Structures are given as structure tokens and as C-alpha cells.
Amino acid sequence: MDLPHAPLLGEYVPSSSEFPTVIECLKKFQAPDFLSLSFPDKFLKVSEALYLLIQEAPKEAFLLSSVIDFITRLNEMNCLEEPYKFAQFEFWLNQLSEVSYEENRQIRAKIMGKYLPRDEYQAFFPIGMNKIYEGTHFVSAHHSPDVDTMVASFWGWVDAFAARIGDSLHVWSLPGGPPESPVTGLLNKLFGKGFFTILCRSSDRLTLAGIDVISRTNMMLKSPSSPVSSFSHGSAGKAILLVEQNHYKGDWRADDVEEIQHIITFFTSCLRWFENNLNQQLFSLFAQKIVEKQSLIDFIHQIFQIKIQESIEELQEKQRLEFDLFLKKVIGLKSGFRGTFQELAAALEKLGLQELALFHQLFHNLTNSDLFIESGQIDENRSKIFKHLQILIQQMTYATQHIYTYCNRLDVVMHIKRDVYHKIPHTITLRTNVDNIRDKMQDYDYLTVVINDQWGEFFPVGVVWAKDIRKPILGTVTFRDFCNQEEVQMASYLSVISVIDHHKSFLKTSSTPMVLIGDTQSCNVLVAEQTMQINNRFSLGNCAPNAIEKQIRALSTSNLSETESRTLKNLLNKHLAAQTRAQYYVHPDREFIEYFSFIHAIFDDTDLLTKISARDIECVVMLLNRMKSLITQKEVEIISLEDIPRDHSFAALAAQKILQNADTHSLYEKIYALKEGEIEASLRLCLEGEVTHLFADTKEQNGCCRVGQTKLFTSNTTSFQKAAEMLRRLWVSIAMDVNQQFPSIDLHIHMISTIPSASEVFKGKIEPPCHKDELWFWIADRQEAYDHLIRFLTSFQATPPILNNDLFVELQGPKTSQLHTIFATHFSQVPIIYTHENQQQALAILKFKAGSINSRKAMISPYLPRLLS
Known about the structure:
By secondary structure, this protein is of the alpha/beta class. It folds into six domains: 20-56 and 63-112; 124-196 and 474-513, no CATH class; 219-252 and 426-469, Roll (CBS-domain); 257-418; 523-659, no CATH class; 689-863, Diaminopimelate Epimerase, Chain A, domain 1, CATH 3.10.310. 47% of the residues lie in helices and 13% in strands. It is built from 31 helices and 23 strands. Helix 7 (147-163) runs antiparallel to helix 23 and helix 29 (783-796) packs parallel to helix 30. The longest helix is centred in the first third of the chain and has 30 residues, at 257-286. The mean pLDDT is 91.
């Protein structure tokens, strides 16, 4: 950020960056040898390449936009079977990279531009004493997100990722996707066009899947030839997976051992029976007075023609059937236990087990050996006889042992498991949701998580343990800009551990959360205050230590004014940070973009500082001064409020001074010009029957209310009047659909409010509007809905914005008698008129002085009824 001159703040908008060698790095993913790989292998290589690019970057870096650029380019190449997301890189970093915990944290810091002692993040998350939560951590915006919740939740996710709150993934949840706002486009410019698609999850519901609960703890990958006797499951339990050329073939579970060992024992007993029977018959033969060659030939034929079933007569019927399947399916003996031992030797030989066949051949070779004399009778030389017998017995013993060893190979026992006991592998994917995993788990102690390639092969990436998936809490959540759980659909196995909010709040939790709730007009004021305190301890403000010392010396020799005293204080903070921060840092680009985002969110939520308190004002001034100091690489103040008395008018006068500052104007003029244009375009689309986003800022509150707000500029009034009837019909239709789907939500309110334009606030001349703003009311036709509207009006009518306001109620549509009775009884000071606009449903419109009721948070939400339980 070393600039030759100091531009206005709005002129300095950092663009997204890229890795210096990204093009060369990505070229190898277009090569034939890469494209021919399986998807799992591609995934590993892509993730490792991104990791190496991050490793090669300077120690103090802010690489988020570079990472987004890498992933965007990669996805545009279509070299993977599915789009790569940021969450997949975090999954690789946690589960597959084998980097240490500390290196993992340093990689996260480089991406997010801030490396801090982990306990510094206690300002946002309850992680004292180095607490790490189990499972995935969500940082969530509320439904129908506006700019305030979008920005606050994004930087919350950035901090959560850097601090590594959970031991799994860190998910930025933006239900329904980003709001239609110029600030959304600004974030795309700051971080790259893939910002939202690559980083955030837009699902309406916070739920977990396989990727969130996966583990590699106690997971063992074993090759086909591994003997099962060489490893045990142990008391803690191990997940033993058979892999062949990195492909998953099955699981060797603790409860497989006993029943499969029975089969192997049966087979070994069968061979031992054959061996004992052979030995007994052989010694009987050699015990005869005369032993002839033909007798031995007949004996060999007879002994190998014995049927296997004779060896298993003691087995029960079920065991005999299982053993028969084993011989047929695993050994390849088509006749099963009805086959002979000679057929068994032939089947084993086809499996590469030649020892029994060699034993058979060795027996035959005796008939042509020196054991028999020319007459065909046995040589009576005892030494010679016992030597041949010893060789025979040893060969048979060796054959039995070798066959037993073979049957204890992992691939063979898995073959038995599949073809004898008909147990097929049960797997899940990274996308399998938790409810399905719990259903599929049944009596297993774990399930293997796999990803498949284009050839239908599976690659094991981890396991999900039954003991983990059955825990009541599987993940954690941070709320930003809301606190009521009904504003987001959250699975019961998630626990809220952190909240930052500036609204009316309601939260039930079983653990101690970090809760920051303040009386500010924007959630980002609260976030910015905490962020600046942290940065005070670790940021050098884009200045070199010697430059900081030089500025301190220049100020120390003068009689300091109030402004100079503050400047010196800020410089001393930086000087202290330079001395104490050690290896920790805050990258200046991160710091500037963070403040830049906060400012735009505050401007948006306060309608360009028209709804603001002294606390909000002081935060905005600090942000603007810090931003200017960062780009000038010198501690400066572009706005000072010391000349404004701290009385009841302080906030309004200070806001005017801020907005009339050239740097501030350069920040908001383009954004607000775009907003005016976008609202105008949306109104025209509505007149043409196209989709409109004017109702996007709508929240469900207190279990029975749905409240929205559409902000218009004075320049949009004419177009609004033309589209008003169509907009109201559309809004009522939406309200009816919501009520049909969720009957408890029966009070629907929508605010049409006027906000000043950028040029008006900069000039300080806001012309009084000649039109009126509106509150629309639609209620379901049932007593509970009537009661909810009555409770709202009773509380609302006594509020300051209602008193001394120019109000009237307009009723539209058929069957308005119930609405008339409610307003006449409970809002009696307000005149009621009827109109005949083409409304098919009863609708009440409260009209009031433009700009007088403009805050849903402060002027509507506190008076909403709550669903009685």
C-alpha cells in the first residue's frame, strides 16, 4: 500500500490479487497425465498445489483473494468432476495434509491476513483456556440477509477460521445468498468474482453432513495381503479398512472377527482331520508285514478321494451350509463340502496355494523312489522308511499352515464376509447428512466416508464414529446481527456459542456463550469496536517502526492540541505493538478492507447516518481516520469532532460533518447512486411483471410475525406510485403463501421508508418530501392473528414517532370490516379511509410523514407480539 500520494478513500479500493505463479501452477492441471487421474487423486494434487502456493508467500500475507482467484480459475478449467470449494481445502488441510496444528494455524493466518495469539479471539468466541469445540462451526447471517448481517457474518467467519474454533470445518452461512446491493458487488471486486460461490453456504438450514463429522482418528488402512492376526481393534476401537491401490474395498470390524474366525477354524480343522486320518491310515499301512507298491498307490487314491463332508460331521446344519459357501465362493471348489480332498487340492492350486497338491505329488513320487525294491515290495530299511515319512508329514504340516496363513489375509476374510455372511460394505459420502448417517449407522461402531471417481471406484477419506454421531451436540454456531433462533433454521444438534447483535434478543443455550449485545444502529459498530481494540495491540498501521518513532519524536516536542494528543496516543499504541507483537501481525491490506467493509455496512444499516447514536458516530470517525492513516502510511485525522458540543444534538451535527467530508463522500457517493438506480430498475421490472427484489429485506420474528422493509429515495417516488398497486398485490400473495406454509406466522408488516440521497446529505440540504411513507398490514383470518395485530397496535400507538405525526389508515380490498374494527378500537386517533384498488385480500396501509418511521429495529420490532407457548 505504498502510494505516491494520498487519494480520497473512495478512490482507493484494493482489487483482488493473485498468486505470482498461479498460471504456471494451473497449467499442469490441463496435462493429460493429470486429467487421466481419478477424482480423489486430482483432489489431493490440487489441494497440495494450493497449499504450496500459500507456503511460498511471504510470512505476513493476506491471501484470501488470491485463494479465491486460484479456485475460480481452477473451476473454469473444468478439470475436476465437480467445482472445488474453499471448504474442501480446509477439509484437506485438517484431515489429509498431515501438517501440525501450529502450521495449520499459520496457513490459516496467511489466508486471512491476521496472525494472533489464539486467546485474542476471546473478544468474539468463548475459547478461553485454549478450548476447541468438536465439529463444524457455523458463522451465520439471518434469513433474508441485508448488508449489515452479510458483512458482520463474513468477518466473523474470517476470524473463526483463523482462530480455528472447531476441530472440523468453519462455514460462512448466508441463507438464501447475498442481498441485492451494490455492497455485494463491492465485495466481489475486493475479493474476486467467485467470492460468494466459493466461500459461503446459502442453504436456508444449518445442518451437518459427512464432511463435518469425519475423523481419521484410529483409522488404519491395510493392504489385501495384511494378516488380520497382526492387528487388533483394541478396547478403544479401530477402523480397519481394506484398500487396494488406494481404493476402498471394505471394513474389517470388531464384530466380524468371531464369526469369520469360525469359518477359518472349520477349514483348519478339516485339514487337520485329513492330516490325522492320513497319518493314522499311513502308519496302519506301513505296519503290515508286507507292503507293496500297488498297496501304496491304492492308498493314495483312496485317501484323496475321501469327501470333505466326512471331516465336518460334528458341525451343525447352519455351520455346514456356511462352510459349504466358503468352499464354493472363497476357495473355488464348485462341489463344496461334497467334493474330495483331491478336488480341494486342485482348487487351492488355482489360488496359488500349491502345497497340498505338492504333498499329493510327493506321495505319488514315493512309488518310484528307492523306498521299494525291484519286486515291488517295500525296502525294510527303517532309516529309509522314516526319512520318507518325515518328509511327508512335514510337507502336510507345512501345507496346512500355509493355507491357514492365506485364509487369515485381509482380502480373504473380507471375501468370506461378503460371500459367506452376505455383508456388503456400508459407506457414506461427504454430502450424506447427519440424520441419514444416524439412520445408516445401525449397530456399527463406525461408517467409512468415501469419495468416488469416474470409474466407480471409492477412495476412503475418513470415518464417522457412532459414539461421535450420537452425541447431542455435534457442532457450534455464531450468530451475527441476530439472536433469536427462529430467524434461522438450525438443527437441534447444533449449539450457539457466540452472538453479536444490536436487536431485541432472545436466546436459550445450555453452554456459556460469548454474547455482545449493544445499543448501536449497526451490528458492525460492535464488531468494529472489538476489531480495533485487537488491532491496537498488533497492527503497525502500514508504517515501519522507524517511521512511527519519527512521528512520535515530532509530536513530543510541541504543545499538543487535542487532535495531536490522540495522534500521539495512536502512535504510541503502534510503537508498543512493534515492540511486543513478536511473530504476530495484522496485514495492512486486511486491516483496510476490514474497516472499508464495516463503514459500508454501517452506512447501509443507518441509512447514511440518519439513524445514529453518539457511539455509532465515534466508531465511524475512528474507522475513517484509520483508513486514511493506512493509505498515507502516516497517523492522520481527517475528521475531528472536538468542535461539536456533546449535547442532545451531537449525533446529528457530527453525522452531518462526517458526511460532508470529501473522503467520506467519496466512499458513499457511488454506492448510493447505484442503489438509487437499482431501486428504480426494480420498480420498472415490477411494472413489467418481472421478478422484484424489493421485498428481500424481510425477517420472521417472535414466531408469529413477518416484517420487511423497502427503502426508497425521493427520486424513486414517481415510479413507486406507478407500481404501488402491483407491489401490494404481490406482497399480499407472498404473505398468504407464507401463512399457508407456516400458519403460526399470521401478522405480516412491510415498511416503505424514504431515505436521503448521497447528494442531499453531502450538501446538507434535505428537501422535505411531499409524499408519505407507508406501513402495510396483512393478517390471517383467524382470532390469533387479530389478537397479534391488536397487541402490536396497542404498544405501537404510544411511541414517539406516532405522536404528532400526520397519520391516516387506508383500507383496501374486500371484507375489511375486521380490520376497521381493530384500527378504530385500538388506533382510534388515526382517521380511516377506504379505497377501491384491485386488491383481492383485505389490506391495511398506515401512511405517515416520510422519514419519520424508518427503523425496523428501533421502531417496529420492540412492539411486535410474541407467539405464546
